[in-house]
Design goal:
The complex is a heterodimer of chains A (396) and B (241).
Chain A lengths: L6 E6 L7 H20 L8 E6 L5 H13 L5 E4 L3 H14 L2 E4 L12 E3 L4 H12 L6 E7 L2 H16 L3 E8 L5 H14 L3 E4 L3 H13 L8 E4 L4 H7 L1 H4 L3 E4 L8 H14 L7 H19 L5 H8 L3 E4 L2 E4 L12 E5 L5 E6 L41
Parallel strand pairs in A: 1-2, 1-3, 3-4, 4-5, 6-7, 6-8, 8-9, 9-10
Antiparallel strand pairs in A: 10-13, 11-12, 13-14
Chain B lengths: L25 E5 L4 H13 L2 E5 L12 E5 H6 L14 E6 L4 H10 L3 E4 L7 H46 L3 H14 L4 H11 L15 H11 L12
Parallel strand pairs in B: 1-2, 1-3, 3-4, 4-5
Helix pairs in contact in B: 4-5, 4-6, 5-6
The chains are: A alpha/beta (396), B alpha/beta (241).
C-alpha cells in the first residue's frame, strides 16, 4: 500500500431517531476533530477520510452498516454508537471481522472486548460522584425512574445501593416500557408526586427524557419542589426539553460546555470559527472529539493500516481533552475521566458546583457500590502524586 | 474448598454466591507464561479478582485458593502432571482447553472439572461461567455435607433402635419404657442417648462385631445401670456440654 493514500475511518451516528439529538452532536464533534487532524497534516501526510453512515436509530442498521464499513470500505476503526444496544450490535461485527469500535458514551460497564475502546464514563466514575453529592444533604429520599433496559436498571441499582449505604432511602423505582406514551409518563409523575421524594433520579434518555420532563412540568413540579438528578441529561437534551423546564436540576458528567479551562474554551472557539455553527457541546461531544484525536495519534505513532498497532497506540495514551487530561487504562481499555456535578441554568448550560481534583480510574467490573463510613473518602481516587500514564510504548 | 470467605455453607441454604462476592475469592492459574496465559490473567484482573500464577503444576494446593484454572493441554504438551484430588477437591476447577476430542474430553470428565473455557481467550462469558461454576460447586459441597450428616443420623437412629430392642428383650420392658431407661441413663451420665446406646450394645454383646447375641448375659447390663448412678465414668465421654 502506498503511503499517500487516504486512510478511511468509519463514523456511525444517527441523524434521526430517538437518540439523534446527542448523536448529531457526536457526529459534529467527530467531523470537527477529523478536520483538525487533517489541517495539521493528517496521518503523517495521509488524509484521514471519514466514511459516514446514518443508521437512523435502528440497532439492526448499526450492525449492517458496521459490517459494510469493515468489509466494503475497509475501515479498521469505527467511531460511533450511543446506546448499549447499538454498541452490542456493532460489537458483533468488530469482534468477528477484526475492527475497532471507539465508543464515546457512558454506559453501565461489565464489558471488555479487544475490539472496543471505551471513552465514556462507567458507574464507578460518575455514579459515585453524584451519590456523594446527593448525600451531602442528610438522608435524601430518592425515587428512581428510567426506561426498561440495561442502562437505567443497572444505573438505578447502583445508585440505590450507594444512597442506602449512605443513610438515604429509595422510596420508589419505576421503569417504563419502550412504547410508553405521554399518558404513561403522566401516570408515572403522579405516582412519584404521591411518594413525595426529595429527589428524582432520572435515567431516561433521548425522546423518553423529553416525555418525562413534559409530564413533570405538566404536573406543576419544579426544581425547588422536587429536584431531578441525572447522569445523562446533557446540554443537548436540555435543548430539546427546554431550558426553563430543566433549570435547577442537576447532572453529573465528565464534561460540561461551561468549563472555564483554556483547553475547553479554545476548543469551543475553534469549533465556532471552523464550522460557523454552535457546537452544542456536551459530555458525548467531548468524548467523541477526544476519541478521534486519540485514534489519530495512535495511527501516527505506528502503522495506521494495522489494527493491532492502532489499538496498542491507544492503550495507555493520554490526551488533553476539553474535560481535562484523560488517559486510556491499558488493562481495561476504558477512560480515566473527570466527574463533575452541574446545576442547569436558565440558559441551558450548567453551573459547575462540584468537581474532582484528579481523573478517576475506570473500574468497569466493579460489583459492589456502598459508602463505608465516611462518604467523602474514595478508593477510586488515584493519589494526586501519581502521574497519569502518558502516551506509552505499549507495543505488543 | 471453603464455600466462600464470608459465610459457612451449612447455614445459608440456597442463597447463591453472588457477583458482589466475587472479589473476595482468590484464584490460582496453572499455566505457562505465554500470551494466552496473559490474556486470561488480564481479564480476571480486569474483573477485579485476586490472581496468582504457578508453573509447573504443583503437587498440592494451598487451602486459601478458591478457584484453580488449569491449561490442561499445556500441561500434557510439556510432559507435566496435573495433580488433583477429584474426589475431594480443595477448590473449584476450571479447565482451559485447546482441543475438544474424545480423549481430552474423557480426561476432563475424570478430573471432574466444574467448567471449561476454550482458547483463545474471549473475555465475553468468562464472568458468568465462573459464577455458575462456583455456585454449582458450592451446591454440590452442601449436598454432600447434608448427605454425610443424614447418613450419620441414620446410623445413630439404628443404634438407638437396637439398644432399645436389647433392653426390651433383656428386661421385658415395653418399647417406651426401654427408651426412657436409655434416656435417663444418658441424662445421669451427661451424655447422649446414642453414646449410651452404643455402650449398652457393647455390654450386652450386641455390637455389630460380636457374632452372637447372648440375651441371658445380664451382669454387665446391671453394672452399667449401677455405674450410671455413679458420678463419673471415665469410659464415657461427656458430649452433652
Amino acid at each position: 500500500m502506498t503511503s499517500d493514500q487516504p486512510i478511511h475511518i468509519g463514523v456511525l451516528f444517527s441523524g434521526t431517531g430517538r437518540t439523534a439529538v446527542t448523536e448529531r452532536s457526536m457526529l459534529a464533534a467527530t467531523e470537527f476533530a477529523i478536520e483538525e487532524i487533517n489541517a495539521s497534516g493528517g496521518i503523517n501526510g495521509r488524509e484521514l477520510c471519514p466514511v459516514i453512515r446514518d443508521p437512523m436509530g435502528e440497532p439492526s442498521a448499526y450492525q449492517q452498516l458496521a459490517a459494510g464499513l469493515v468489509s466494503e470500505d475497509k475501515v479498521r476503526v469505527i467511531l460511533g454508537c450511543y446506546t448499549s444496544s447499538q454498541r452490542k450490535a456493532v460489537l458483533n461485527v468488530v469482534d468477528r471481522q477484526s475492527a475497532l469500535l471507539c465508543y464515546a458514551a457512558q454506559y453501565e460497564g461489565f464489558e471488555y472486548s479487544e475490539n472496543i475502546v471505551y471513552f465514556g464514563a462507567v458507574p464507578n466514575q460518575n455514579s459515585v460522584f453524584l451519590a456523594r453529592y446527593l448525600l451531602k444533604d442528610p438522608a435524601p429520599r430518592l425515587y428512581i425512574v428510567g426506561s426498561d433496559y440495561v442502562w437505567p436498571r443497572e444505573s438505578g441499582r447502583i445508585m440505590g445501593d450507594l444512597i442506602r449505604s449512605g443513610g438515604g432511602e429509595i422510596v420508589g423505582e419505576t421503569y417504563l416500557d419502550d412504547m410508553a406514551t405521554p399518558i404513561h409518563f403522566d401516570a408515572l409523575v403522579r405516582r412519584i408526586r404521591k411518594a413525595s421524594p426529595d429527589i428524582i433520579f432520572n435515567n431516561f434518555v433521548g425522546e423518553a427524557n423529553r416525555n418525562f420532563y413534559e409530564a413533570y412540568v405538566g404536573n406543576g413540579l419544579d426544581a425547588r419542589r422536587m429536584m431531578v438528578a441525572s447522569l445523562t441529561t446533557s446540554e443537548a437534551d436540555i435543548r430539546e426539553i427546554g431550558a426553563s423546564a430543566a433549570a435547577g436540576h442537576i447532572t453529573a458528567a465528565s464534561y460540561f460546555a461551561s468549563q472555564s479551562n483554556v483547553t475547553n474554551q479554545s476548543c469551543l472557539a475553534r469549533f465556532r470559527t471552523r464550522r460557523q455553527e454552535e457546537p452544542y457541546a456536551n459530555m458525548c461531544w467531548d468524548a467523541a472529539y477526544t476519541q478521534a484525536h486519540v485514534v489519530a495519534h495512535a495511527m501516527r505513532g505506528g502503522d495506521p493500516d494495522n489494527l493491532g498497532s492502532i489499538r496498542s497506540g491507544i492503550l495507555g495514551a493520554s490526551f488533553d481533552a476539553p474535560q481535562g487530561l484523560v488517559s486510556i487504562d491499558a488493562l481495561n481499555a476504558h477512560c480515566y475521566v473527570w466527574p463533575k456535578v452541574g446545576v442547569a441554568r436558565d440558559d441551558g448550560q450548567f453551573e459547575i458546583v462540584a468537581e474532582t481534583n484528579c481523573a478517576i480510574r475506570p473500574d468497569p467490573y466493579r460489583t459492589t457500590y456502598e459508602f463505608v463510613g465516611d462518604a467523602g473518602g474514595s478508593s477510586d481516587t488515584a493519589p494526586p502524586s501519581t502521574p497519569l500514564p502518558r502516551i506509552s510504548g505499549l507495543r505488543q | 474448598m471453603r464455600p466462600g470467605r464470608s459465610e459457612p455453607f451449612a447455614s445459608e441454604k440456597e442463597q447463591p454466591f453472588l457477583i458482589k462476592d466475587l472479589r473476595s475469592l482468590s484464584f490460582l492459574l496453572v499455566q505457562p507464561q505465554d500470551s494466552d496465559g496473559l490474556a486470561l490473567k488480564s481479564h480476571l484482573e480486569r474483573i477485579g479478582c485476586q490472581v496468582q500464577e504457578i508453573w509447573p503444576p504443583p503437587q498440592n494446593y494451598p487451602t486459601d485458593i478458591d478457584i484453580v484454572f488449569v491449561m490442561v493441554d499445556r500441561v500434557t504438551e510439556s510432559g507435566q502432571t496435573f495433580h488433583w484430588q477429584a474426589d475431594t477437591p480443595s477448590a473449584v476447577l476450571i479447565a482451559v482447553i485447546d482441543y475438544e476430542n474424545p480423549l481430552s474430553i474423557d480426561r476432563l470428565l475424570h478430573m471432574r472439572v466444574n467448567a471449561v473455557i476454550g482458547l483463545p481467550i474471549r473475555p465475553f462469558g468468562i464472568l458468568t461461567n465462573l459464577l455458575a461454576a462456583v455456585n454449582n460447586h458450592r451446591r454440590e459441597q452442601r449436598i454432600s455435607l447434608n448427605l454425610e450428616r443424614a447418613q450419620a443420623r441414620l446410623e445413630s437412629c439404628r443404634m438407638v433402635e437396637r439398644a432399645k430392642l436389647a433392653v426390651m428383650l433383656a428386661e421385658g420392658y415395653p418399647e417406651k419404657v426401654a427408651y426412657a431407661v436409655l434416656r435417663e441413663l444418658a441424662m445421669k451420665r451427661r451424655t447422649t442417648v446414642e453414646a449410651i446406646s452404643s455402650e449398652v450394645l457393647i455390654r450386652l454383646g450386641w455390637s455389630d462385631s460380636s457374632a452372637a447375641m447372648r440375651l441371658s448375659d445380664k451382669p454387665d447390663w446391671q453394672a452399667l445401670c449401677l455405674a450410671g448412678a455413679a458420678a463419673h465414668d471415665e469410659s464415657l465421654t461427656d458430649k452433652s456440654a
